[in-house]
Amino acid sequence: MIFEITIQVRVTDFKEGRNWYETLLNKKPDYVPHDGFVEWEVIPGCWLQVAEGIPSEASGPLRLGVTNLITERDRLVEKLGIDEFEIYTREEVSAKWGTFTDPWGNQLGLFEYLDKLEENNRIKTVLGV
Considering its fold, how many domains does the chain have in total? Predict the structure, then answer.
């Protein structure tokens, strides 16, 4: 039985990487077990680890669900200086999304459900409400 997930990205400048991901996630790490490694519980049971090291080539993107893609994109452009963050949609896809990279080349992105009822149902399911 799978009950949790962890995803790790690596950064060559750990201090800068930690600060960058704190801004991205809008909070301090939930777990700091040792130097060169931090971890956030993004949603219950889903952990994002940032470790000092060489980033993996061509990995990702790791996309995070948000309730307002435009607002979050604008926040990240302002706070993190992300300059390439186009938003995409396709008629057959029930979400809009955008992809960007961190300063170390890790592929990241955000997505938003177009159907707000579906979005609210997913939020309730994930949070166990």
Answer: 1
